[in-house]
Amino acid sequence: MNLTHLLAAHRASGRSVRVALIGAGKFGSMFLAQVPTIPGLDVPVIADLDPARARAACAAVGWDAARIARTRFVERGADACAAEDVDVVVEATGSPAAGIAHALAAIEARRAIVMVNVEANVLAGPLLAQKARERGVVYSMAYGDQPALIVELVDWARAAGFQVVAAGKGTKYLPAYHTVTPDDVWSHYGLSAEAAKRAGMNPQMFNSFLDGTKSALEMAAVANATGLDVPEDGLGFPPCGAEHLPLALRPRAAGGQLAHEGMVEVISSVERDGRPVIGNLRWGVYVVFKATNDYAADCFRQYGLATDPSGRYAAMHRPYHLIGLELSISVLHAALNGQPTGMTREWRGDVVAVAKRPLGSGEMLDGEGGYTVYGKLVPAARSLRERALPIGLAHGVRLRRAVPAGAILSTEDVTLDESLLAVRVRREMLEAAGATPAPVPA
């Protein structure tokens, strides 16, 4: 509530908040669109594998020629992390391997790091956050993306003295979506392949939103930031509208659909027969909370909150999120308050690779949103017990044996390249969690 005043004071002292952006895709471009309207916020360096594309993105979002001319465009994210004129690094590549490398580089350079890259955060966030704490560096989730907004709602409920029962987001979901591939993704979005191509939309990336992988990653991030539990066998995606949150997202013992209080869950905006849910929360986030005394429950009724029949369970929700358009909130909190807008604090949830179809020995996995696997949210303890292959390492690796459709893949089902940074960091994280890593296949 004080960021604009802090930024004005910072600017009055002759300083600006300086950002290095890594990845000038859709999320990064949305952030760049807001920069010219926030006095005191500067982006002196942008890293992208295609600097010309990044320069074009700046022009497309309305940057004038002078602003573009004074910005450095580089190919390597490591160069952006090491830049002397940077206070905060924003990692927005979407690549788990790149995200881990850039986070480590930013932490080593003692730069605050805002991780748009939920893939990297779920794959190795507990270890990255620990390294950031040891260096006195802010390691933050990205405001505007749903996980940070959910964490904010959870913190609001707890700070107000309520018991958090459930938290999560809405999405469009049907069970059949788990097997959708990039070949048929656009029909579910109401687009033709040609229209999507003209708009520059990546079918594999958009398929990760549809097949449940992105929802699993985001809820793992929320659980790891808040200490909420995750479902034992994956998200349930119950159809639910905003007004029915206190009814549906109660424990089963109280008439709801949760195994117990204190869980993450994603709600579907469509019924199982495809009909739209009335008052659906497809683009929003929510928290369900519980009054801890009769007086608070009476206040729920007096002030018009929708509750369950007991009057104890209520909910707050935010119907929309603006993604990169809100990212500056994280940047300014990190630079001016020295605080994250949500961060990984423990390892409670993991996202494991599940076969979309029968997979044969020798097949190459193609990762998040692809043709071979989707990501499923499970408790970290189950992932450890089953030595599951995380979705973040399920790209460009070859199967050593056949895997049936619907099965969780094990690290022993594939050949991992132990020289890769992401593999080594993941193993270090498991060891820090007290796990015995799976043996390296011969």
Account of the 3D structure:
Helix 6 packs parallel to helix 7 (118-135) and helix 8 runs parallel beside helix 12 (213-226). The longest helix is centred in the first third of the chain and has 18 residues, at 118-135. The chain has helices at residues 3-12, 26-34, 51-60, 65-69, 77-82, 96-108, 118-135, 146-159, 185-189, 193-198, 203-210, 213-226, 245-248, 294-302, 328-337, 380-385, 421-432; strands spanning 17-22, 41-47, 72-74, 88-91, 112-115, 139-141, 163-171, 263-268, 285-290, 313-318, 349-355, 364-366, 373-379, 395-398. Helix content is 36%, strand content 17%. It is α/β, with parallel strands linked by helices and 442 residues long. The relative contact order is 0.13. It folds into three domains: 3-143 and 326-337, Rossmann fold (3-Layer(aba) Sandwich), CATH 3.40.50.720; 147-173 and 212-320, no CATH class; 349-432, Antifreeze-like/N-acetylneuraminic acid synthase C-terminal domain (Type Iii Antifreeze Protein Isoform Hplc 12).
Question: Can you tag this structure with a few keywords?
Answer:
3 domains; Type Iii Antifreeze Protein Isoform Hplc 12; four-stranded mixed sheet; disordered C terminus; alpha/beta
